[in-house]
Amino acid sequence: MKKTILVLALVLGLFSANAQDGIEKGTILVEANTGNAMIGTTSFSFASSDGSTEYSLGLDGGYFIAENLALKAGLGYQGFNPDQGENVSAFSYRLGAKYYLANQFPITLDLTGASGDGAENFIGETPLWLGLGGGYAWFITDSISIEPGLRYNFSLNEDFSDEGIFQLNIGFALYF
Fold first, then answer.
1. Domains along the chain?
2. 51-61: per-residue pLDDT in tens?
3. H or E element in which residue 13 lies
4. pTM surpassing 0.70?
5. What gap in Å lies between CA 5 and CA 50, rounded to an integer?
6. Quick one: which H or E segment has residue 16?
7. Contact, 92 vs 75, CB < 8 A?
8. Would you give the DSSP letter of residue 60?
9. Comparing 42 with 94, which gets the higher pLDDT?
10. Ramachandran quadrant class, 60 (left: phi over 0; alpha: psi -120 to 50; beta: rest)
């Protein structure tokens, strides 16, 4: 029992040692995330198998309209180069909000979609997702954080998919 209490105290100490004051109104946010290209994304990803390559590049930016609350927008580009067949590309967009609960636990809610020349041939339909995510912000400095988190994407286009997708992401954020 004493060991359990000691471990809990150490973990809580680590969380509180990383805590910072709230992110001020007027701060600009720039972030890059890992992700999955198949859902229409503003993140970085790369996959290659049997001569086919799939990748994505993107960034999100935001503006804190209140302490700990940012409105965000993002743009991304995805490409799919199959072993046999025509290359496909798509552009993605993301609009949403991010709130830092207790200055350290980011919660996001956003709308993500994709469209592009030939994208419908690759994915069948245009994806549209409502994403809800949460994680932990590890502030390395007052202006840089690493943010591992979980995200669930609810499909809003049943013609594309009627299933949601879980993601494990690692984000890198800069605050100006």
1. 2-175 (2.40.160.20)
2. 888 888 999 99
3. helix 2-18
4. yes
5. 50
6. helix 2-18
7. yes
8. E
9. 94
10. beta
